[in-house]
Specification:
Largest sheet: 2 strands, parallel
Structural class: mainly alpha
Radius of gyration: 21 Å
Strand content: under 5%
Bound molecules: heme C
Distance between the termini: 51 Å
Number of helices: 9
């Protein structure tokens, strides 16, 4: 009897633990991006700035993910060699097809939280790296939903910078 009880509790703890880890790490959503885009290559070798591609960060709520037109500024199908690599092959297939590259937006905060890039990038004059410190080093997209920062992170900076800590500033 005692053994069964321990066993049942043990299974409960494991299942609960897995559910919590799953909820924190991914909220159960698979997010395989259509191309295994490499940030590190574009920032190191190509020397690009974040806002070359995320053009709306300074002026809009969302930073946005670039469409295929922008990729074509640098990647010309006719000038690439035959063995350009599997990720470029995917890019060229999207270029030939109708519609845009179906990027998924995975870097989000909770749905009831209001966050504006314009307010922080232009209003607060903050660099992207302040809040996305690891992005420039990623060689492939993160596979699952990422919580960019916790409420404690938001509030710590707001207190430092004298920005609002009123619940309703962020929860509208
Ligand atoms: C301003 C120029 C520029 C823009 C814009 C650009 N790239 Fe690149 N990209 C480069 C350079 C430079 C390299 C490294 C040399 C190479 O592999 O051609 C590269 C490499 C790549 C590679 C091969 C590296 C790998 O890891 O497989 C892929 C795939 C790629 N880019 C996809 C994209 C996509 C998708 C877009 C649009 C969202 C894009 N690029 C926009 C300049 C650019
Ligand atoms: C050459 C274009 C390019 C440059 C330069 C670039 N990005 Fe990106 N970024 C993309 C593309 C394409 C995606 C979607 C695929 C992915 O997640 O890797 C993306 C995704 C992201 C995401 C995740 C969006 C989501 O919801 O999944 C963040 C955050 C991000 N970029 C921040 C940055 C920051 C910060 C910099 C500068 C350090 C930067 N990017 C530079 C093209 C670019
Ligand atoms: C003060 C912190 C902060 C700064 C500065 C910041 N971001 Fe973000 N970023 C966030 C948060 C928080 C999210 C999730 C927001 C949401 O759910 O709307 C996010 C989401 C994103 C996303 C995915 C969703 C979208 O908005 O399209 C991209 C791409 C991105 N950021 C790029 C950038 C780039 C590029 C810069 C610099 C020009 C930048 N961020 C500056 C905090 C920041
Ligand atoms: C690194 C510092 C920093 C971080 C991190 C940060 N903020 Fe801010 N935030 C600021 C600054 C500075 C301002 C004031 C900008 C201005 O003067 O326009 C601001 C303003 C705001 C405003 C407007 C407040 C008002 O009075 O209307 C909201 C909403 C907001 N931030 C939400 C968030 C959320 C949500 C997060 C976390 C996901 C966050 N911020 C993370 C620095 C930060
Ligand atoms: C500067 C922005 C900011 C302020 C101010 C703020 N919050 Fe938050 N809050 C967030 C963000 C971002 C999240 C989601 C990330 C997380 O759970 O850590 C969150 C999550 C929460 C959650 C969890 C809800 C959920 O969706 O899981 C509660 C409850 C909450 N906040 C209550 C409050 C209360 C009460 C106040 C005022 C005392 C407050 N918050 C002030 C940014 C803020």
């Amino acid at each position: 009897m005692r053994f069964i009880l321990v066993f049942v509790v043990g299974v409960g703890v494991v299942v609960g633990g897995v559910a919590i880890v799953y909820a924190i790490a991914g909220r159960g959503e698979a997010a395989d991006q259509p191309i295994a885009f490499n940030h590190a290559v574009h920032l190191d070798s190509a020397g690009l700035k974040c806002n070359t591609c995320h053009t709306e960060a300074a002026t809009q709520t969302y930073a946005g993910i670039p469409g295929k037109e922008l990729c074509l500024d640098c990647h010309d199908v006719d000038e690439e060699s035959d063995d350009a690599g599997p990720q470029k092959e995917k890019l060229f297939a999207f270029v030939d097809a109708d519609g845009d590259i179906p990027w998924q937006r995975v870097a989000l905060t909770k749905p009831d939280v209001y966050f504006s890039h314009r307010r922080h990038v232009t209003g607060g004059n903050l660099d992207c790296e302040t809040c996305h410190p690891a992005q420039a080093t990623l060689t492939a997209p993160p596979p699952r939903t990422q919580l960019v920062m916790t409420m404690d992170d938001c509030i710590a900076c707001h207190e430092r910078e004298g920005a609002s800590v009123d619940c309703l500033a962020c929860h509208r």
